[in-house]
Every structure is written in structure tokens, then in C-alpha cells.
Amino acid sequence: MKAVIMAGGDGRRLRPLTCTKPKPLIPLLNRPILDYTMDLLAKHNINEAVFTLHYLGDMIKKHIGSGGAWGISASYSEPGRKLGTAGSVRAALGGIFHGSTSDGESSGGQIAQKGAGESVLVLSGDGITDIDLSAVIRAHEQSDAAATIVLKRVAEPTEYGVALLDENGTIKGFLEKPERSEVFSDYANTGIYILNGDALELIPKDTDFDFSKDLFPEMLRRGMKIRGHVTDAYWCDIGDIAQYRQAQQDMLNGKCAFSTIAKDCGGVLIEPNANISGRAKLIPPCYIGSGARIADGVCIEPYSVVGSASSIEEGASVKRSVLFERSHIRFDSELRGAVVCEDAKIDERVSLFEGSAIGAGTHVGAGVTVLPNVCIWPHKQIENGSSCKDNIVWGSTARRVEFDGCIVHGYADEQMTPEAALRVGAAFASRFALPAKAAVCASGEPISVVLKYAALAGIASQGVDAEAVNAASISAFSYTVRKTGCAGGIYVNNNGRNAELVLFDENGIELSPDAMRSVRAGFLFGEQKPTLDAELGIIGNLNGLEEAYEQRLLCGIRRELILNNKRTLRIGAPEQSGRVISRVLLRLGWNVERSCAENGLSPVFDENTIAVQIDNDGKISLSISGDIILGNSEVQTVIARSLAVNCGGGAFGLPEKEGGAELLVVPVSLPEPYRDEIKKQGVQLIYSKESLAEQRRLSFAKNAYYPALYEPEAAVVKLCEMFVSGELKDYAEALPKVYTSEKSIRTAWKDIGRMLRMLAEGEKNGELVDGLRLKRDTGWVCVRPVGTADASFRIVAGSRDSEYAKELCDVYVEKLTRLRDSEKDKNS
């Protein structure tokens, strides 16, 4: 069997370690990661390998060469542009599976028949494992699966693809890098695959195509069998600096089998020609590379690695730290959980704390303190006696803001500073192909305006034109981004002490988790270089957006109906949203009474008044006379029913049409009886995660973006139209009575995936969207992970019978409690 080794990643989350080396060449116990992969292939008699290269690929070619050192025939594939994981493997197979044309690609659109019957082993070159590849290959060959994915149980599944298996070991559900609320299993995709020819043939030529996001979902859609091979062997992905250090601790603890030239001296592994003073103290387990010099009085504490030709002077102390080759630590310095890259110089009396990293060739002056988790990029000069509190990339710092979904936020007086907003703008804009433009809007508070101009400067610094937009609602801004040809946009909002930047794509839809990961990596680890004067973007202004958005709202309703039936709207909403709604309805002759959003919804006794409340998450509740009060789910249902009858101007991006909507996207949390009410109108429903951002993203992808369902301002205007037509009261009174019962159970994030997987395995016909949703007799239950620092499950059960809803909720609380406590009992 031939192997394809994916070695093209740029390792951004491992910066600054990967600024000067490709990730596969980062050392583990003084050997490049890739060497352990080659050892594994040779051990299992795989004698032919092709490497997919991109970032610093020449260094990998030089290191591996022909592969003769391992008895493996090595070749290389460099597509020259981003093709995704599967696409790059497809390009590499041009040289393995069949004769190639002069450009190195196959002469046909598919893999030639000669290779169609062969299987290929695919694995990553930047992780470490001691898995029995021969056993995996045998199991695959004995199965009828088109593909085998090696899976490993992990405590934190959000950084991996996760899979759910049926009782036969066949994968029935798969999701790449889920958000915490999406986790449904603790079986992580290790990136080790065996693929048959019929699976490989699905990979298009010269196309950006991913295994986890494209190939495997397509195979499941076609009914092709994908086998999950669960392993207990050691595996570590080495995604960030913490995992990098942990992998070496695991190796020193004997958790992973590996080969080394070092001699084991009572738990201290020492390579030949190391020069260690008899008055130095080495506490096992630790590793000393060849040619290292360790002076008198030096203390090397457990889980430390000293690279080849490194030098540690008198009185220095190294604990749980990793030194690359040729690093130099002067006297009386202390390293605690740090990484020091090649050729770095650490002067006397320096303190490096947990999680810090010093880039290649950097000189840290005497008496410097580098605080926890601070990274200093290569070839920097740190002045004597200074204290490094933040990352140093281009002579500046990176504040520790929070990335949460599509939002970047932090305290305005400490974290989300103008400098941080500038860096967010630069990281956001660095993703765009030039020429491009991006817009920035603020909610209007002084701090939001200051941050807006900082973000504009960051965007322009990357050569992207930056458009300043006057204060407006977030929906109006989203519409502006969509209509003005922007590559994306940033909305700056001030929520009390917390300032937040909401990031949008070119469609005015909140950035996807994948795109946000890229922005986060750019913010924390990226190198957005200063641009020459001639290459800077131009900062301009976009005006009149609110008027354009208000006109769009008017086009989506029966204007004459509202004009001829003047009523009163009592509205409590965030400032900008309330202003847009008020202006639209005042133009239509309505009375508008603004109330404080925090005061809650007040009852209505006047049959000509409708009261509406919009919270900060965009959820809506309303009240009209007759004791009719609707929550957010009921509001969505009555609007969806109305759209099913008459969708007005059509979905955004679709031509206007007569009649109702044919397809609508609603949250998976929408109660079953409400779903049925909408389906009665002949509408197909697609279910999304609960957040408005996710509903917008999916509806846009399905060409079913109806503003009244996904924009609070459009929803309120639509509700006013329904109010005067009588639809609102009729639909509200027709809603079935639904009772819900809600409880929470606290747990640990490391148990979330395991508990939800085990729960799903014991149930049938569950929906794996935003947690797990199950239908039960006359009710349903949703189990969803929630929380940030503290993890918990939110269990919501519903039924038209209040007692059954409570009973159902209690049943699943008890099930989850047993699953949680079973692991505690096992570990006690």
C-alpha cells in the first residue's frame, strides 16, 4: 500500500515555532515530527510515500530527500495553490496511480482505472502516533467499506472532526471542528485514512476540496460505507504550543513508543557527545541532545528537552521547557513551561513563564520577565529589564480579547483597546484577495466610534479599501455589506463595559466558524506586515445606508394595508434597531412609543396597540389585546405561516414571485407542534442551530433568506402588517398549546463529547443539530451543551401535555447524570 503524507500546513497556531520551520520539522525530543511518521511507515513495510507540500516545502524536501534513510521511496507534490486536504491528495495521486501528462496531472478527469481498485493510506505529517497501521490496513481490506477513518477518544473534541458510529462500527454522522454546542461525540478524526478507488474518484481535479467538509459528507449522502476504526494507541495532533509540550511529556512518560539514539540513564535520555557537568542536577524524565553543554549548578527538571548544541550556563534552571538546537541560556535564568527556538539567546536572570515561546534568533536581554502565554516572534531584541505582557510580533502587542462565534469581544477599558481593534481589522482584511473593500460601522457610543476608526486603519494597512459607515443597526449594516460589493464588514457594538466586533462575510452573513478560526489565528499568530504607502487601502465613507435599508423593509410588506390602518406600536429594542423601526412606521402614519428594552414586555389592553420587545440577541416577544402574548418561537411560527401564504418580494437574491415560500430555515429548537403548523402550508423545513447567525447563514446558502425571519427590524414591520390584516391574531389563536420543561446538569468539558455520544448511541432517529434532538411519543427533547468556562447540558423537553414534558425532562436529566457519574466511578 502506498502512503500520502499531508505536510503542507503552515502551523499558524504554533507560531512562533513555525515562523522558521514547517510544522512537520518542529522537533519532538530533538527529532523532527516527520521522522517519527517515516519510522512508522517503515515499521509497517510501507515503502512508497508522496508528500503534499506548501509552506516551506523545500525544507521538507531537503530533510527527507529520496527517503533512502528509511528504505522508503519518497516523492513530492506541490500544487502551487490551495486545494484543501482532499484536493492536495488528489493532485499527489497523479504521480502514483497512473501515467501523468506533462503538467503532472492525470490525462482524465478521474483517477485512471489502473488505480481504481487500489487503496491509499493518507496520514498527517505533523502529528505523532504509534498506531498499528498493519492492523488498520487488514481490518479495512476485510471490510466492504469505501473508506476507513481512524478515530480516537478525546476530552476536547472541538479542535477535530467528530464521528458517530452505529453498532457495526459504520460512521453515521460526521462534523468537522464543531462548536461546543454542536459536539455529539468524543470520537475524534485522527486524519489517518484508508481510501479505496471509488472514494478517491469523488475528489474533483484541481479543486479546493476537503476530506472532512466535502468528501466524507458526500460519501454519506451517496450511501457509501465509511468504517470507523477506534484505536487505543497513542495519537497527538500537536495543534498548538500546549499540545506540543504535552506530546513530549507523554513520550517521556512512555505513553508513545518511539525510536531514539539516546541512552536511557535512569530516566534521563542522553544523546552521544552531550557535555554535562558532574555538578549539574538532572531530574528524570528529561532529554539531552547531542553536543549540548550543561554547566555547573544547572538544574534540569522533569519534562525538559535540551536540543543539540544548546548551551545552559551556571545556575540556570529549566523545568517542563523545550529548547531547540543551538539555543543559549545564560546564568541564573529560569524557564518554567517555556519553548525556546533555534539560535535564540536568553541572557542572565531572565524568567520565562508557563506557555511562553521565544522565536528563532531572538535575543532576550538580562533581567527580562516574559509572562505566561506570551510569544515573541523571531529575530527580536528585547531590552534589558523589560516585562513582556503581550505577544511581540512586529514590535507591537496582541491583547487577549475573546473570540466567541462570529464575535470578538473584551472589556473596552482593558482588552478591546484601539490597538486590539486595529489588529482584528488587519487579521480580517489579510484574508482578502486584492483589490477588495470592507466596511466598518459602529452602534454610535463614543467607544464604539473610536474602535471603528481603529478597525478601519487595520483594514487599510493590508491594502484593502476601508469604508466608514455612519451609526446604524446591525441588520442595516448587514444589508449594506451585501449590496455594496464589500468583501466583508465589521460591526462595532458597545454592550456596557464589553465592546464587541461582529464580523461579516461578503453576503452580509456572520462569519463561519472556519473563517473565524482563520481571523483568530491571524490576530494571535499572524504576521500582517506593514504595507508601503502606495499599497495602503483608501479610507472612504458610505452614506445613506439607513434610508436604503428602510426602503428595503417597505418593499417587503403590503404598504397600502398599513397606511390605511394606522395603529400604535410600543417598542422596546436596542437603540439602533428601535430607531429604524420607528422611522419606518412613522413614515406610514403610525404612532410609535419607545420603551426601555430592559423593562420587559407590558400587557396590552387597547385593541389598536401592539407591544414588541427585542432583546440583545435579536429574539422577539409581543403582546396584543385579548391576553395574547407570544415568545420568540411563537413569533417565528406565525411569521413563517404568513410567508408560506405570501412571501412578499421573495427571498433575498431570488426574483419576486407570486404565492408563498416553498422552503424555510428554522431553528432545531422550534417545538414539534409549531413545525407541524408551518408544514401544513406545504412548506419544506430545514433545521439550523439556534443562533440567529446560524439561521441566517444556512438560509442564505439555501436561497431561502427571508428578512422577516432573520432580521428583528424586518420581523417587527412584518408583524405590524399582520396585526392590521388580522393574520397575527388568527395565527396566534390557532397555535397549539405547548408546554416545556427545562433543566441543566453541570459537567466538565472533557466529558461533553463522551456523554452526548453515549446518549446518541442508545437512541434512535435523533437529529444531530446543535446538540441532540429526540422525538418521544407525544413529546420531544433537546439536549445541548452550553457554557463557556463552566460546562453544562441544557435539557429542554416539550409536549402538549405539561406533565409529560416534566417527566420527559426528568428522564433525560437522569440519563445524563448516570453517564456523567459512571466516568467518576471509573476514575475513583
Which CATH C-level class of the largest domain is it? Alpha Beta
How many separate domains make up the residues?
Answer: 5
Proportion of helical residues: 25-40%
Number of helices: 23
Under CATH, the topology of the largest domain can be stated as Spore Coat Polysaccharide Biosynthesis Protein SpsA, Chain A
Mean pLDDT: 86
Q: Termini, distance in Å? A: 44 Å
SS strand fraction: 25-35%
Low-confidence stretches: 95-116, 649-657
Characterize the main sheet: 9 strands, mixed
What does this entry show, briefly?
By secondary structure, the protein is an alpha/beta fold. It folds into five domains: about 1-235, Alpha-Beta Complex (Spore Coat Polysaccharide Biosynthesis Protein SpsA, Chain A); about 260-390, UDP N-Acetylglucosamine Acyltransferase, domain 1, CATH 2.160.10; about 400-545, Alpha-D-Glucose-1,6-Bisphosphate, subunit A, domain 3 (Alpha-D-Glucose-1,6-Bisphosphate, Chain A, domain 3, 3-Layer(aba) Sandwich); about 550-735, no CATH class; about 740-825, TATA-Binding Protein (2-Layer Sandwich), CATH 3.30.310.50.
